[in-house]
Amino acid sequence: MPKEAIIPAGTGTPIAPFVPGTLADGVVYVSGTLPFDKDNNVVHVGDAAAQTRHVLETIKGVIETAGGTMDDVTFNMIFVTDWANYAQVNKVYAEYFPGTKPARYCIQCGLVKPDALVEIASIAHVGKKA
Fold first, then answer.
1. By the 8 A CB rule, do 73 and 97 touch?
2. Confidence tier at 12 by pLDDT (50, 70, 90)
3. CA 72, CA 104: separation in Å to the nearest integer?
4. Res. 44: pLDDT tops 90
5. Which of 29, 44, 69, 121 is least enclosed by beta carbons within 10 angstroms?
């Protein structure tokens, strides 16, 4: 099955060997997304809500570059470093998914950079390109 790398304009160089998203057979797989600027620096240090918003905006950019919208998201994998931030993450998350919610899970774990408080990976069904 052919696949296409999805790299929104302005995307920096990843810190590992991956692309922001991959489109295959009408499905976008969005890599684990951290609250990084284009130089891989953590943004909004200490603010889980602002980091979540940054992550979801980045994911939105990947999905839109692939021809979809956030309504096309069917599954999210959420990673938080501290359950104390769970309510803040959920509050922002709900803004991006106001209607029928995607399936998801959320776990607490360490992330690749200590100042990152949240990471999200997504799957969206955007349909096949003509």
1. yes
2. confident
3. 14
4. yes
5. 69
**What are the start-end ranges of the H helices in the chain?**
48-65, 86-96
Helix intervals (H) in 3-113 = 48-65, 86-96
Task: State the CATH number of the domain containing residue 36.
Answer: 3.30.1330.40
The residue whose two tokens read 């284009």 is 38
CA distance 67 to 108: 31
In this predicted structure, which of 12-21, 29-38, 45-54 has the lowest mean pLDDT? 12-21
pLDDT classification of 88: cutoffs 50, 70, 90:
very high
Total domain count for the chain?
1
* Start-to-end Cα distance in the chain: 16
Does residue 130 sit within a domain?
no
Q: Which residue has the tokens 């931030």?
A: 85
Q: Retrieve residue 75's tokens.
A: 């599954």
Residue 83 falls inside a structural domain: yes
